[in-house]
């Protein structure tokens, strides 16, 4: 008989828990062959439960149950049963203490959920449902408990023993062992539990809160990384101050700890008072970390810290509400990053991810609303939709209410629901209450999947001097949702006159936010002297696809005149897109003068924010061009983009050289301020464009920069330029000397892998297979797997989509192998195959065949089963 397939669970089936846990006492005895976990739970029936006589049902996965007691008495074998992933205890009193003892094997845990070993240390990852791999528990976020945790381990191997809250006791035991006891005064769901035991270096700092309390900050890392802590701690202090200033949120414990681990499925985790980070998302020093790396770390440290309020103090009722904490926290970290640097550049970066990857997700087989209605495996829903689109939804609420009302709404939300597990409806209700704005229609953003399309047309009548804008909105069908109701869309616009000046709008300002709520709406502007140029969707005020019939001249005009920085950049992107799309459809390989002239103007512009200029110099990516195509011809897109780059580089050689030289940095110490970063980006962008054309002088500059670099941005910038250049020998030499220099540093080796797997010059399939044989590669380490296999399938598109289907077959092989080790990573890695609808019939057939092979290959994890089966519908 066929084994039962994993079944979906539904939001509509939510019921309050039958039991509550008032107190959780845990005792860990850590050994080299495994760990014993004793748990004592103070349980009582939930007065709000709809089943007053329910048995106690606890979640548990891969636990060896060694004893079970109620109020100190061993439970009879007939009274309890373990079936699948549940322990059921029947005929329990209304209030009692349950003690269980289990044995687990962290050393054999390769899925990196629950308690596991990363290099020499023990660590945990409990979100979403990892706690059930540690002990039997009611593993759901609306069960919130106080925790007291005792850890016992060998003192020389694990001198540092950490858990949530405050350390209340510590001491020495027999046989070279020692112990520590931690108590967390805040009630929390078990997904926020954490434990770390290891031989770690600790760097300390302090933060004084606005009310004058001293908080001790500690960063724990392996000893070899002791000199990579500064930036994480600086970022943490900035985040703490910012959350006080902007949201009035103070930290609530005496100590805040960050631990860096090398083996981690995601970026980082907001465990109460004990954040655990993927090494690549927190460790930094100038010699090994790029400017992008620095900025990413600052943002992720902030994100995890902000969760202390948006996620921990107020948490999610159930996992369908995941965006309650994630969308809101991503919005908060985006505001923070904008405040720390350039808000326009931050917006450009966020919208780039959204339009390239989230829109693709919204249009793919796993498409789901910001608040999903069902899922098979929750780990599959830590998505760009829940995170990034969820943040866009919060951003739109901010736009609709204005900063002041939004702050009142967030204050109300935090005070009303402090210590509770709530829903996205509760969040929106607070925003409605303080503003008096009806968000009923707006809430469709949480319920309906898919990216809305807004088609804009306009008409100017010189006789009446009226200008009419018409908006038509629609939303494509998505799985399980064929018909969509209109969204409430805040749509920001401006109008430019012939000289490039903003025209005053009816609201008295130069930008106005329209409320689009109907399938079709028009707006007429009076007394407009001449045909204006519309600046549409300023700041990307809503996550929609915008359609308007731009002329190339209008785009070039907006590129230099729009007062909205985001739209200036976007006009340049649109111009380049139209040019490349024309080349693709008409077969021509000439780059029109208008694009060259527009780029010339950008390069020579030393007035505008140089960080924005650097962004404007980069052509839209292949991924985005694919996203925009109905049927993407990957090889053709690659070819046309390469040619466009080379021709721009050739035509603008002198300007690029001047730009490179203008941005040479003085020999002063490396700094990560906005201007220095912009200069390095510009210089490296210019270098790369020049090298692509085979320019010998630029080759020498690249080699010199590579040799002399005192920071990773310059060194890898030069290396990247060489990798993308036609100079094969120099490229090979530089790659190998780079590895020799950095082989002992994992974070740099990951960058070295990515650089090679991400492009066809160094990452054809044979080379990828060779990288996987490299001594530094380890398929059990998610960062290494992502940097070789993930980067190959997501960025090296001509090789992944090779005509013979070899890229697809390769990915399928890797996914099958990984699923047995780490289902979360396997199910993420398979994503590129699920996007088969984008490609030609032949490609579609090959991709589906690869998916079929995965599906029929044996027992899949629920993670991989969900993604693969939904992709083949
Ligand atoms: N809550 C974390 C992300 C995270 C989610 C799941 C994890 O394991 C499955 C780990 C981390 C955040 O938003 O940063
Ligand atoms: Zn988060």
UniProtKB/TrEMBL annotation:
Gene3D superfamilies: 2.60.40.1840, 3.30.2010.30, Neutral Protease Domain 2, Peptidase M1, alanyl aminopeptidase, C-terminal domain, tricorn interacting facor f3 domain. The keyword Secreted does not apply. Its cofactor is Zn(2+). Residues 553-872 form the Peptidase M1 alanyl aminopeptidase C-terminal domain. The keyword Metal-binding applies. Coiled coil: none annotated. Keywords: Aminopeptidase, Hydrolase, Metal-binding, Metalloprotease, Protease, Zinc. Residues 450-549 form the Peptidase M1 alanyl aminopeptidase Ig-like fold domain. Residues 46-192 form the Aminopeptidase N-like N-terminal domain. Its EC number is 3.4.11.2. One of its GO terms (molecular function) is zinc ion binding. One of its GO terms (biological process) is proteolysis. It catalyses: Release of an N-terminal amino acid, Xaa-|-Yaa- from a peptide, amide or arylamide. Xaa is preferably Ala, but may be most amino acids including Pro (slow action). When a terminal hydrophobic residue is followed by a prolyl residue, the two may be released as an intact Xaa-Pro dipeptide. Pfam families: DUF3458 (PF11940), DUF3458_C (PF17432), Peptidase_M1 (PF01433), Peptidase_M1_N (PF17900). NCBIfam families: pepN_proteo. Aminopeptidase N is involved in the degradation of intracellular peptides generated by protein breakdown during normal growth as well as in response to nutrient starvation. This is Aminopeptidase N. It comes from Oleiphilus messinensis.
